[in-house]
Amino acid sequence: MLQHPPRGRPAIYLAGPDVFLPDAELIGERKRTLCVHYGFTGLFPFDNQVPAGPGQDRAIYAANVAMMQAAWAGIFNLTPFRGPSADPGTVFELGLMAGLGKPVFGYTNDKRDLIARIPGVVQGADGIWRDASGHMVENFGNADNLMIDACLAAAGPGIVRIGGGGALDGMEGLQACLRLAAQFCQDKGMHLTAS
């Protein structure tokens, strides 16, 4: 069951492979600034201060899960990363937040269907599409795996596709999702304080 926005400036968890980019902190700042513009508080994974050392990976995981639990909603950058599909960590976070019943919004800066991004895909005589290794490739016209697209469609308007040439740091998709989140709040009768 979707949670209603809290009073004040609702917090939105900003997930995506952006954290792996060389200018990740700058990207996080740009995203947080856009959130304020639309009346939200942006929570970027780099906001967590996790000391280096043994167990750092588990500490990062725990801190990010706590941040997602505290957030009202999540926005997910599902632009392909290290291959034809979205970053697996981001997909996990999408599933977690959807499972917690929180509003989820997602975007990709690559407008192509998933099947168009997988090299060597051919349709066999049996009508089934297969990749170069002979593995079946789903062809539902989705931006990514059906579980990702269906999750976002079940939660609202579905995945936002922006023609950003696949750039991971593009902000148009985030802005489109922030507008959708603001409309969601308006539909629930909540007034947002935008800057």
How would you summarize what this structure contains?
With 195 residues, the protein is an alpha/beta fold.
Looking at this protein, list some descriptive labels.
disordered N terminus; 5-stranded parallel β-sheet; 37% helix; two-stranded antiparallel sheet; Rossmann fold; single chain; 6 helices; 12% strand; alpha/beta
3D structure, described in words:
The structure is a single chain. The chain has 195 residues and is of the alpha/beta class. It has one domain: Rossmann fold (3-Layer(aba) Sandwich), CATH 3.40.50. It is 37% helix and 12% strand. It is built from six helices and seven strands. The strands form two sheets. A five-stranded parallel beta sheet has the order 2-1-3-4-7, with helices on both faces. Strands 5-6 form a two-stranded antiparallel sheet. Helix 1 (24-38) links the parallel strand 1 (11-15) and strand 2 (41-43). The protein is globular. Residues 1-5 have low confidence and may be disordered.
